[in-house]
Amino acid sequence: MSSLDIALISAACIFGGVLLGLFLQNLLPGHHLSADSKDTVKLGAGMIATLSALVLGLLVSSAKSNFDTVSAEVTQGAAKIIQLDRALANYGPETRDARELLRRSVVAGIEAFWPEDQTVATGMTTFERANGMELVQTRLRELSPATDAQRQLLAQAQQISSELLQFRWLLIEQTQNALPTPFLVMVLFWLTMLHMSFGLFAPRNAMVIVVLLICALSVSGAIFLILEMNHPLSGMIKVSSGPMLKALEHLGQ
């Protein structure tokens, strides 16, 4: 289920709580809606609102931190790709095949996460199956340096390629972290009960209903942001492809 689907379901549940509260106004006896009862409900709603705000704030902060971390890793990976290409270029013409494989690997990675054709099957699964960097390392092991300078450049290139391979698997493993479903269900329950308390004592007019609908959409929007930023390389909110595109421009020069 996509982040947008979950956010829409959340909005429906939360606004359903509002409608349930409005419906209960007619069913409950008058003394249940007295001023004393209203104050007690407000007290409970305040506690739930505080819990929900704290949890949502922490989740947004954690998701944004994860998004920024992946974005920084992509930028560092792009810089290492340029550095590897420069080392191979300085080694000599013997590395032409390795440089071409490196370029193809970068193109495949860009196409996997930032495809021009949205109808093509792409994403982390495609990236996980790619083996371009392993092929580059194989070509590097086949080189026979003749001078100390070439030996130094080859050692540098092998180290950078190993770091890039580690970076690749790090991205793959980071996508395995997901928000636990029971945790999400509990937060959604809190928000639904909170909005039900709003509807319980709200006047029945179009303005109130519209405002409460906007509140439900806003809170579900926060859930959408949390789910999207927890997966920075898929969905609607992604890290920028700029660093990788700039690296691709410098390859082969």
Strand content: under 5%
Determine the fraction of residues in helical runs and give it as a percent range: over 70%
Mean pLDDT: 86
Tally of individual helices:
9
Shape descriptor: rod-shaped
The major beta sheet can be summarized as:
none
Q: How are helices and strands ordered from N to C? A: HHHHHHHHH
- Structural class determined from secondary elements: mainly alpha
Instruction: Describe the oligomeric state of these chains in a short phrase.
Output: single chain
- Kindly report how far apart the N and C termini lie: 43 Å
Instruction: Tell how many strands the DSSP assignment holds.
Output: 0
What ranges have pLDDT less than 50 throughout 5 or more consecutive residues? none
Notable features of this structure?
253 residues; 0% strand; 9 helices; mainly alpha; rod-shaped
In short:
The chain has helices spanning 3-27, 35-91, 96-113, 124-129, 132-141, 148-174, 181-201, 206-229, 242-250.
Textual characterization of the structure:
This protein is mainly α. The chain is about 80% helix and about 0% strand. It has helices spanning about 5-25, 35-90, 95-115, 125-130, 130-140, 150-175, 180-200, 205-230, 240-250. Helix 3 (about 95-115) runs antiparallel to helix 5, helix 3 runs antiparallel to helix 9 (about 240-250) and helix 5 packs antiparallel against helix 6 (about 150-175).
